[in-house]
Amino acid sequence: MENxxxxxxxxxxxxxxxxxxxxxxxxIMPLQLPACSRRSVRRGEALCSAxxxxxxxxxxxxxxxxxxxxxxxxxxxxTGFRIAGDIVGLDGISTGAYQTDAIALEDTEVFVLPFxxxxxxSRESAYGQHLLMRTLAQEIAGNRKHMLAxxxxxxxxxxxxxxxxxxxxxxxLGYSRSRFLLRMTRKDLGSYLGLTLETVSxxxxxxxxxxxxxxxxxxxxxxxFPALWRLAGVASDCPNPILEPIIDRLGxxxxxxxxx
Amino acid sequence: MENxxxxxxxxxxxxxxxxxxxxxxxxIMPLQLPACSRRSVRRGEALCSAxxxxxxxxxxxxxxxxxxxxxxxxxxxxTGFRIAGDIVGLDGISTGAYQTDAIALEDTEVFVLPFxxxxxxSRESAYGQHLLMRTLAQEIAGNRKHMLAxxxxxxxxxxxxxxxxxxxxxxxLGYSRSRFLLRMTRKDLGSYLGLTLETVSxxxxxxxxxxxxxxxxxxxxxxxFPALWRLAGVASDCPNPILEPIIDRLGxxxxxxxxx
DNA sequence: CGCTTAATTGAGGAGTATCAAGGCCAGTGG
DNA sequence: CCACTGGCCTTGATACTCCTCAATTAAGCG
Lengths: 260, 260
Description:
- Two copies of one chain form a homodimer.
- With 260 residues, chain A is α+β, with helices and mostly antiparallel strands.
- Chain A has a domain at 154-238: Winged helix-like DNA-binding domain superfamily/Winged helix DNA-binding domain (Arc Repressor Mutant, subunit A, Orthogonal Bundle).
- Helices cover 38% and strands 20% of the residues of chain A.
- The first copy, chain A, is built from seven helices and eleven strands.
- In chain A, strands 1-8-3-6 form a four-stranded antiparallel sheet. A four-stranded antiparallel sheet of chain A has the order 2-7-4-5.
- In chain A, helix 2 packs across helix 3 (126-152), helix 4 (155-172) packs across helix 7 and helix 5 (186-193) crosses helix 6 (197-209).
- The longest helix of chain A has 27 residues, at 126-152.
- Mean pLDDT of chain A is 81; it is low at 1-33 and 256-260.
- At the A-B interface, strand 5, helix 2, helix 3 and helix 5 of A face strand 6, helix 2, helix 3 and helix 5 of B.
- Chain A binds a DNA duplex (30 and 30 nucleotides) through residues 154-155, 185-187, 195-202, 204-205, 217.
């Protein structure tokens, strides 16, 4: 269950990347990264809970989770759905305790990164620092975008944005951008979008009637991207950039800085 | 226009703090902090704009600003109102360019912190690192809370929360918690709360009719806190903690870590 | 194959947005 | 000093989005 990432390994990745196409990395993580353990979470189980002492960051290796926060009154707001390559637990940094719960929507596996270790990398390497910073800031940017959606958009527009966002994330992982599974329930999706589950269901049905998508339970097919772009209010598929993933589909870390 | 913060100065603050009451700081910033310049922004002018190259962080010394983001379609979402002690510009870290505009709602003065400098402090001192991290994470937490408001709450509840939040922030700065000015327009407030300006106006009028608050143009008085707590849906005034300010009312930096 | 949970669909209503008209206020220039 | 002006605010009437409640069907899971 251990996955040591060595400098040699990193160098290898570096070579492969340079050979491929993109600008060569300018810096290679000089550290011998410590062993990185994994953890499995069964469907319905919690990876971490709000209030729990913050010690770990998690990188999703495979599976899906929902992050959500509960106010004191049982108000629940789903703050995001995490798939492979996403990081879970960042909200624990400020207070020393996780602020959101994360529950697996299917059997899921994550890498475990002890946070003190992350801090050490961050302090000892300019790139590590940059990476951690960028990751946190990315979280901010994502939340901000979601805030804009919740504050200014109509239900249909939010739904279109959500579908396109998920599409892009899956595409970026090497999966189909037009067919995927919505592992969350309509209720969770509604919570994420600031809608009721009935409204979500109606919206999906309507989009299907109009020939924009095809829905059958949890499986979705996007049929008419231009229509979705129009609904989402974007000229084309040009949302904010997806950062280089920290981890690939096989579970290898990708600690290589790009030239900038 | 220069305000050098010296180690001696910090030590002095430390003594004063310890003499007062609170747990003594465990660590003093060992660095000679570089000179810190100020910048004035007139009402209506921009402190920084989205897309602009990210070089500085700003700490509000006095005045008020609104942060907002504009989508490609002219959709505007106000993401926050910044008063003394708040930090502006954090959203620039991820992409190297600011993602939100910040405009002064009144004549405003800020301290200018060159970000490379911040990174240096962060790397050279565990406390500096912690401070920067905590600040970023705080931003995340705040946005998250706002997301919950936009996603799950009714207009009246959002308004109550907003009033109580502002009340607490002013109180924390040493001002009255029950009387303050809403320097933003109804439209900006509406944008922040995900409402139209008419709804905002109606809500304020209603709260006044019910004796909960008193409004006259931009000046507001909170008359019935229990009623506001009830509307906001909190048992009492127990929201998330306000972090130690980084700067005091006189413009002195407070780089002293507390025991924990 | 039942049982439980999730999803769809409909009818009706609450909550906000939209549209429109007028009032208030500060700044401006006669 | 006062009228003028433009932006901001308030208030009302109406429309519409979305929620609530309810009934039914479909889908998961033992």
